[in-house]
């Protein structure tokens, strides 16, 4: 269902294509950057289920600049079916950003995003992430550096401000679009000090949409398809960016792009979970995948209402063959009985 824009014109549907700096994006439902999570197979999963664009987990511009081997091998791994894909960089040095963005472009990125929203003290202390809201000139130089180094359209993801009521992110977004030629703004309208809590300010996002001539992508509070649709209407944004709402729920992209009405059944959820386990092994090898997957298991455990014993074993001891066995056993209806262990 199309809404109405402020000027009375029909709003595009979430299923309508758009462009970021000339790069065609098939629809307006995007996977947000997610540190420690948004690797090639998580992005590929979102794409398989209909996301128009997936943004990588944040990658250190310094690690790229110094050609850190693991960063290049793992974080810069891009699957051929992911395109278009955006690589998110963080950093505080324009020259290093220029060089890092060039390396991300060589690795196959179609777009570069710069993180100006991370509230984590370890990142802010270096002058990167949300700290850049305090240094707009440096923020502009980073965006220009990334564009020059990569030759790609550059987007920026940022917060509305550092503290509640502070609009420094809003003001910076306007300058980034006007003075640094940024191709889109991903706006998370929560103060950095709020972390991921509290109600995002979609009215402020709407104000930003009225002030910049580039697409605005709204992030924050998009816990599922209904919340995402509401945020799209309330904010007037050009696209939505799903973050925690995608955890263990790639079907949210199908719902939002009109490919699904009914929720997935148990077999479908189990098949998806097994796909994730297989890809994690392919990515990291058996031993590291076993540990890495501890982040992913609880999402699917919750969706499938798996018994506590299964959840505990997956979290504590199950090697990958055992994990696959436990997961496969959850395909059948539970009938209130714990799975035979
Ligand atoms: C585990 C986790 C990791 C995140 N990593 C990043 C990141 O690397 N870069 C970034 O710009 N935002 C990151 N974010 C913020 C999300 O992209 C998103 O803006 C935020 O979660 C708000 O959306 P939500 O309320 O719908 O989850 C992260 C959020 C979470 C929960």
> What amount of the residues lies in strands?
5-15%
The molecules bound to the chains, other than polymers, are:
flavin mononucleotide
Beta strands, count: 11
Q: N- to C-terminal separation? A: 47 Å
* Overall helicity: 40-55%
Overall pLDDT level: 95
Just name the CATH architecture of the largest domain: Alpha-Beta Barrel
Structural class: alpha/beta
At the fourth level of CATH, the homologous superfamily of the largest domain is Aldolase class I
Count of discrete alpha- or pi-helical segments spanning 4 or more residues: 14
What is the level 1 CATH name of the largest domain? Answer: Alpha Beta
Molecular shape: globular
Count of the separate structural domains: 2
Strand order of the largest sheet: 3-4-6-7-8-9-10-11
In N-to-C order, the SSE pattern is: EEEHEEHHEHEHHEHEHEHEHHHHH
Radius of gyration: 20 Å
**CATH fold label of the largest domain:** TIM Barrel
Low-confidence stretches: none
